[in-house]
Amino acid sequence: MTPSTTNDDYVLGTGDEEIRRLGIQHSVWRRYALDAWRRAGFDRGQHIIDVGCGPGYATVDLAALVGATGRVTAIDRSAHFLEALAARQRAERLSNVTAVKLDLADDPLPSIVADGAWSRWVFAFVSQPRKLLQRLHGALRVGAPVVFHEYFEYGTWRLAPRSTTFEEFVQRVMSTWRADGGEPNVALDLLGWLPADGFRIVEVRPIVEVISPLDPMWEWPASFVTSGVRRLVALKSLTAERGNDVIRDFAEAGKRPAVRMITPAVLEIIAVRE
Fold it and tell me: Which of 59, 77, 181, 197 could pair with 127 in a Cys bridge, judged by C-beta atoms 3.0 to 4.6 Å apart?
């Protein structure tokens, strides 16, 4: 999920370019998701909610996991993303996915009692994340596991040797994120909200990597830089000249195998609905 605007679209768009970027993102993070789902107890025959499903990359994996006797309810506000999911459903002949179009910031969740839920980089972008958590509690059975992947320190995203240009870019991303009503480090809040709102935290794991341009994971944050710069320039948070400096410096860093990138720090939280 990407930052939302006041209409039915997202700040980074829902076009083919963004769908491709989200595909890169999922391919990098797929192994973390599958491992977390296994440890949380997601299994065949269950009904799982994909909260903020986007174009449905994780949805398809969840559908395969729960099998023909299970079900996935995939929720997103973007009609175009849900059309992309529908195309994948047809291509893979999936009959166990129900797509629901609604705004997670405000709309009631479907009247269901699910066996589990999954959410990746959704609570960081909605304007009222705690209210979303409370609504999610009502859509789950007692004992249902929930898996979250959310940032707890987005500012760890850096290059070594250090690039002040790139660090300025990351800080401006965070400031505009907050100006849009989101909170990049929302995982820190989730750790307090969960026990207060009827969940028991089972496991918390940090995920932060130090990678070189030769690492396949490099493509994940790299795929965001150009669109992120474009967004900041459009908001006048960054001049076009400075934006070009960010893109150039990052591209040059990607040509040097000795460079290292520290990825934005993510918390994997597994909790159970009480």
Answer: 181
Task: Provide Rg for the chain, Cα atoms.
Answer: 18
**260 in Cβ contact with 159 (< 8 Å):** yes
Residues whose CB falls within 8 Å of the CB of residue 244, separated by 6 or more in sequence, listed in order = none
- Residue-wise pLDDT for 118-143, tens only, equals 999 999 999 999 999 999 999 999 99
The continuous run of DSSP H or E covering 251 comes out as: helix 240-253
Tokens of 169: 């870019």
**Closest to 4 in 3D by CA, of 94, 116, 132:** 132
C-alpha angle 115-117-123 in degrees, rounded to nearest 5: 155
Q: Which residues contact 27 (CB under 8 A, 6 or more apart)?
A: 57
Q: Residue 234: which residues within 8 A CB-CB, separation 6 or more?
A: none
Which segments within the chain are labelled E, that is strand?
A: 47-51, 71-76, 97-101, 116-120, 145-153, 158-160, 199-207, 210-211, 260-262, 265-273
Q: What are phi and psi of 238, to 5 degrees?
A: -145, 135
Strand partners, 206: 267
Q: What does residue 229 show for φ and ψ, rounded to 5 degrees?
A: -60, -45
Sheet holding 210-211, edge to edge: 158-160, 260-262, 210-211
Number of CB atoms found within 10 A of residue 110's CB:
13
Instruction: Give the Cβ contact number of residue 245 at 10 Å.
Output: 18
Note the pLDDT tens digit of each residue in 140-178. Answer: 999 999 999 999 999 999 999 999 999 999 999 999 999
One-letter amino acid for residue 223 of the chain: S
Q: How many helices (H) and strands (E) does the chain have?
A: 8, 10
Question: In the chain, what is the straight-line distance between the N-terminal and C-terminal CA atoms, in Å?
Answer: 27
Structure tokens at 97: 């996915």
